Structures are given as structure tokens and as C-alpha cells.
Amino acid sequence: MYRGKILIPLILILLAIAVVFRNIHGQTLIYHIEKFHMIDYVEKDGSMHITYNITVMVDAGAIRRYLSVGIFGPDFEVIEAREIETHTSISYRKEVSGDKYYVYLTPSKPIYDGESRTFLLKIILKNHIYEDEKNPGNAGFILKFYPWKLSTGEYTVTKEFKIKVILPEGVKKDEVKNYPDYDNIFIENNRIVLYWERYNLKEIFEVGVSFPEKYVENIVRPSQPSIIDQILDSIFTLLESDICGGLCCIGMFFILIFSLATGISRFRSEYISPKFSIEALGPRKGLTAVEAAYLLEQPYEKVLTMILFGMLKKGVIRIKSTAPLLLEKTESKVRLRYYERSFLKCIKEDGSLDKNCLAKTLTLIDKTLSRKLRGYSYIETKKYYENIVKKAWDQVKKAGTPEIAFKRFDENIDWLMLDPKFREKSVEIYPTTVYIPPYYWYWNLPTIRGYEEKPVNIVDVADNIATSLEQTSASIASTIEDIADKITRTITGETGRESKPVFRTSSCACACVSCACACACVSCACACASGGAG
Question: In three state form, how does the secondary structure of 247-289 look?
């Protein structure tokens, strides 16, 4: 009896403790980075002495086991790991596995909801400065930072993000090439310092720096492209060329495929060292308006509408109806771009469009852009083409006469259509009469053939063109509304409209890690596991 009186309260107490313990441990961990400061000393011997100063704040749950920090390459050594507030040296675990380079920092004690902790991590990173192939005599590196990732799959915010890159002694300001523009540049202990800062950062941030290689003793020299790369480039070039046709093309294609298979078997274990190119710090020029539209993440229907309009100008197709959209092929033999040839195959016998074929056309653009952007900066390239659109409008507006204004409008319309405000700006052209090229009438009067140039009000024409483009785009949108998941998108951007990267063999190598991703070329689409805590 006495034992029962003691046992029952004891059981209740244990149950209460178990419930509390379960609630504490079952709570989803949510945290953010209050501060991420990084100092990178680039030394004469080619090594980088990097210090991370990271303050993490727990918003819910608790960090008990680790905070992971991404390192930019596999050849690194941890010099120090400690907590600032507790003045405690902490244990850590280094992980180098495949393309994952982490340091897992173990807190001296759990960090609970509402608490913060500052970690100091010092490392020495070697073999991360590459030869700059586009600027002979230069060397450099690219660092790509990714935000930490919560267990929910969401990326957490870094409220204060600051990095300093201290270049080797002797480097002069006018010898430095960098991307993006620094927020400050100054001298510290006779060394050039580049400084960047961002606030409330929740997206990828990349930094590239290049300088004369004479200031460092050891740099990574790229090997020659592998036979696999050369064969793939040959295949793509052959398939995109207009001289390839019939049995000749088929024969050449299978010869290349056979060579590729042989090469893969022979060089399966070959190591391709990363390449660094300062061109990765600049824009990729020479893209078409359609490719630029895809790169700028314009809606798929707009990209397809631009292809259609280009083919209309070339006289390859006619529009029979805009609602529903029905097209008609002509007998024109003009030279077509690769995506126009693909689009042409999507026109069915009844004039409608095959949506699955359109998805393949968009995927083809994506894969082609992936190759073209190899070694170039995605962000700088976007800015470059946004500026082209602005310059195109400036040419129209600064034209001396209405006729010249519309001539500029006609010449630049492929680029002007990239502007989200194309319709509004189109009707701002001089309100007078000019002679309009006949192909524009196919938008306005699709059932009438053979219109000759005739004087019309330019505002009316511009408005009708914009209206027809919108109608056509809407028709295409309704056609492809359920195929977005069939479009293989490897060109990553900021809108989240991308799929997992599926690059073909590339000479670029990415070191994707925790909160950071170091790429030897910017066009690498790093599929990083991102940083985390637990």
C-alpha cells in the first residue's frame, strides 16, 4: 500500500518529464544568421587564410549537435574553431566527400530558442587560385556563397553579410579585375583590400577576383580538354550547322557517337582539373534576342512568341488565326536558327502547335545556353542584355524623323519585345504616317495575303503589333500551360523557375558546399546541399 502511494506520483512525474522532453526535442529547428563575416587573405604561396565569424540566432527549437560551414575546396586544414561568448575551443568534424567540403562545428552547449552564439573558424585553403585563360598572365578565383538551409527545405536569411579579400602584397589597384563591383577598396598593411557587404541576404552571392599571377607562386593550371569534351562540342556544332543533312549528317553523327563511347570507356577515370577564366567575371555577348529572353527568365510563352515572330519576318510561316492560334508553313528556304528549325517541327498539319514539341524546343534553348554560358557570369550577362533593350529604345526615341523612328523600331523589335512595358512604350513613337513592311500586316490581318507597303499611323501599327503579340502569347500560354515540368531548365536564376541541373560533360568543376559554392566557372549550376544545423 505504502509502495503504491509512492509509485503513482513517481510515475506521473516521469510521464510529465517525458512529455516535456518530447515537446522540446520535437520542435522544428528554425534559425537565421545574424552575422556572416569572412576575411580571405590571399598569400604569396598561393594559399588562402580564411577566417569565418558567424553568429547564429535560434528562432525555434535548439541547435544541439552542429552548425555546418561550407569550404570552397577539398584541400584545406582547420587551424582553429571556437565560440566567442564562451571563450571555448570547440570540437569539429571535417568532411571531404565527393564535391562536399564541410566543417561541422559542435556547440559547447545547446543553443535554445531566443539565444545566439558566435563561432570563429580559421582555415588554410590551398590549390584554389586558377590560371586566367582569357587574360594571359593573370590568375584568380571565384567564390560562390549559398544561404543555410533549414530542415523544412527553406533557405534562411543572413541579416549581415560582409566579406574582405586581401590580395597579395604588391598588387596594384589598376591590376585588379573583380566581380561584382566592390563596395569599397582600400589599403591595409600595404595590401589591396576588396570589400563587399549585403543585408538580409537570402540568395546566392558570388565574388570573382583576378590579378597578375606574378604575385603568387602556385596556381592551378588547367589540363587540356578531354576527348569527351571535344567530341561533345563537335556533336553540338554539327547538329546546329545548316550544312549537315541527310545520310552525311547521320553518318557523321554515328561516327561521333562511336568515338564518344570509345572515349568514355578509355577516359572514364580521367581527372579534368577546374578552369578559371576572367570571362566568368563578365557578360556573355553574342546571344540572340530569343536566347536573351530565356536567360532573362521571360515567360515561356513569350520566348516562343518571339521565335514565331522572327519566323514570320523571314516569311517561313503565316498566321491563319490568333484565337485559336493556327499557323501555316511556307515554302521559304531561308536560313533558320536552331530553335526556329525546332519550332517549325511543332506545327501540326491542322496548323496547331504540338505542346510536347514546344517543350523540347525550350529544352534545346536551355542546353545550348548552358554551353554558351560556360565560363561567363550569369548576373553580368543579364545586366548586359537588359542594357541592350534600353539602348534599343533610345535609338527609336532619338531618331530624327518618324520614318527613321519606325526603321529603328523595325530593326530592334526583337530586343524591344524583351521589355515588360513593350506595349506602353510602343505607342509613344511619333504619331504620324509611315510606310510599314508587309509582314506586320500578318499580325493585324492574318487572313489577307500580299499586302504592299502602305502609309498608316505609326501609333496604330505599334498598338496593333503589341495587341497581336499579347494575343499570340496568350494563345501559346494556353497551349503549354501543363508542360512546364517537361522543360529541362539548367540556367539558374532568381525566380525559382529552374529544374535540377542536367549539364552534359563540362570542363568546369564546381565545389558545392554548405553555405558556399566555389566554381571554377560561373556557368556551373551548382546543386549544393547548402549549410545546415542540428
Answer: HHHHHHHHHHHHHHHHHHHHHCCCCCCCCECHHHHCCCCCCCH
Q: Is residue 326 part of a domain?
A: yes
Compute the distance between CA of residue 39 and CA of residue 44 in angstroms, rounded to an integer.
Answer: 16
Angle at 166 between CA 144 and CA 156, to 5 degrees: 35
Question: Strand pairing of 158-166 and 30-42?
Answer: parallel
Query: CA 314, CA 335: separation in Å to the nearest integer?
Result: 9
Task: For residue 369, give every residue at least 6 positions away whose Cβ sits within 8 Å of its Cβ, in sequence order, or none.
Answer: 287, 291, 294, 295, 491
Residue 236 contacts residue 307 (beta carbons within 8 Å)? no
Number of domains in the chain: 3
Query: What is the per-residue pLDDT across 429-442, written as a single tens digit (0 to 9) for each?
Result: 655 544 455 444 44
Instruction: State pTM to two decimals.
Output: 0.46
CA–CA gap between residue 40 and residue 168 (Å, rounded): 11
Q: What is the band of 474 on the pLDDT scale with cuts at 50, 70, 90?
A: low
Beta-carbon contacts of 284 under 8 Å, excluding residues fewer than 6 positions away, are: 372, 373, 376, 377, 381, 384
CA distance 497 to 451: 41
Single-letter amino acid code for the residue at 130: Y
Does 391 lie in the same domain as 299?
yes
Amino acid at 67: L
Distance of CA 261 to the CA centre of its chain: 30
pLDDT the model gives residue 47 = 94
Q: Which three cell numbers stand for residue 401?
A: 524623323
Same domain? 89 vs 150: yes
**Domain co-membership, 316 together with 434:** yes
User: Looking at the structure, do residues 203 and 295 belong to the same domain, yes or no?
Assistant: no
Nearest to 455 by CA among 427, 432, 431, 433: 433
C-alpha cell at 359: 517543350
Q: Per 3-state DSSP, what percentage of the chain is helix, strand, and coil (rounded to 5)?
A: 35, 25, 35
Question: Scanning the structure block, which residue is given the C-alpha cell 526535442?
Answer: 25
